[in-house]
């Protein structure tokens, strides 16, 4: 990660500060007893690919600021304790978004191993399309942040191809296609572990925000 941060212009000092803060928080992207064998196997496969440095495991915390090294996002909420990153909003393991992300910096690619729990139900037995959109946005967003820093989703277009059964495991695979000034274009596919079923495909546009302004200043100037 240290290498990744310097690659993307995030200072080592900021990274160390972030790391020490992040260490105090629970990392939700580690295996727990709700993970199925399929989720564990896929996780082990990616961990193995981390050994030569090609892939990096991305830790995940309940507070959005802890996710992002340095000061990519400045605090806009007076009371941070009451904020909670949306996909990490449930404490009970296995009921909501169970996921772990891995970054491939040289391919500008982020994957997410996702196991939707019963609280994400839409049609009986299947994940709600909004939960699929959330995990796609978070994966693509994470990829965009590592490439461009402070960004926001301007457009997200999803084609839902096959419903995702609750409790199954899917691979959300996203990559940066193009960067044009402040615009970052990305695409993504959501597939079953065996790759045979295409559940969804998406394209997205993220816009890099003005790095000299806080998020609050940025929003009030629009
Ligand atoms: C920690 C985990 C993170 C996970 C990721 C989660 C991501 C999110 O959920 S973000 C929340 C959802 N997104 C939002 O609320 C964003 C709301 N929108 C905004 O705030 C603004 O429109 C924003 C910031 C995207 C762009 O505003 P601004 O910085 O003023 O850019 P603006 O000047 O309008 O546009 C810049 C360029 O992008 C283009 N553009 C902007 N929006 C769009 C769009 N929707 N479609 C196509 N092009 C667009 C503009 O045409 C312009 O192009 P050009 O430079 O060629 O003229």
UniProtKB/TrEMBL annotation:
Enzyme superclass (EC): hydrolase
Question: What is the E.C. number?
Answer: 3.1.2.2
Q: Name one GO molecular function term.
A: hydrolase activity
Catalytic activity of the protein: hexadecanoyl-CoA + H2O = hexadecanoate + CoA + H(+); octanoyl-CoA + H2O = octanoate + CoA + H(+); decanoyl-CoA + H2O = decanoate + CoA + H(+); (9Z)-octadecenoyl-CoA + H2O = (9Z)-octadecenoate + CoA + H(+)
Q: How does it sit in the membrane?
A: Peripheral membrane protein
SUPFAM superfamilies according to UniProt: Thioesterase/thiol ester dehydrase-isomerase
Thioesterase domain residues: 125-197
Q: Which GO terms describe its cellular component?
A: mitochondrial inner membrane; mitochondrial intermembrane space; ruffle membrane
Taking the first listed entry, what is the main subcellular location of this protein, grouped into a coarse class? membrane
Looking up InterPro entries in the UniProt record yields: HotDog_dom_sf, THEM4/THEM5_acyl-CoA_thioest, Thioestr_dom
Alphabetically list the UniProt keywords.
Answer: Apoptosis, Cell membrane, Cell projection, Cytoplasm, Fatty acid metabolism, Hydrolase, Lipid metabolism, Membrane, Mitochondrion, Mitochondrion inner membrane, Transit peptide
Q: Which GO terms describe its biological process?
A: apoptotic process; fatty acid metabolic process
Cross-referenced CDD domains: PaaI_thioesterase (cd03443)
Q: Where in the cell is it found?
A: Cell projection, Ruffle membrane; Cytoplasm; Mitochondrion inner membrane; Mitochondrion intermembrane space
Protein family membership? Belongs to the THEM4/THEM5 thioesterase family.
According to UniProt, the name of this protein is Acyl-coenzyme A thioesterase THEM4
């Amino acid at each position: 990660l240290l290498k990744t941060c310097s690659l993307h212009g995030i200072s080592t000092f900021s990274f160390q500060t972030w790391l020490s803060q992040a260490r105090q928080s629970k990392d939700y992207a580690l295996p727990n007893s709700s993970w199925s064998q399929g989720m564990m196997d896929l996780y082990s496969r990616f961990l193995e690919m981390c050994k030569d440095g090609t892939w990096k495991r991305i830790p995940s915390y309940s507070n959005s600021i802890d996710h992002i090294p340095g000061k990519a996002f400045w605090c806009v909420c007076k009371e941070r304790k009451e904020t909670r990153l949306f996909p990490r909003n449930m404490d009970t393991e296995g009921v909501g978004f169970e996921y772990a992300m891995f970054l491939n910096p040289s391919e500008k690619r982020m994957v997410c191993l996702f196991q939707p729990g019963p609280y994400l139900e839409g049609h009986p037995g299947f994940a709600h399309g909004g939960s699929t959109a959330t995990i796609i946005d978070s994966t693509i967003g994470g990829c965009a942040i590592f490439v461009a820093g402070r960004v926001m989703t301007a457009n997200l277009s999803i084609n839902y191809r096959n419903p995702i059964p609750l409790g199954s495991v899917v691979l959300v695979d996203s990559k940066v296609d193009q960067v044009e000034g402040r615009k970052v274009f990305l695409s993504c596919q959501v597939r079953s572990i065996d790759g045979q079923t295409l559940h969804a495909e998406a394209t997205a546009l993220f816009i890099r925000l003005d790095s000299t302004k806080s998020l609050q200043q940025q929003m009030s100037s629009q």
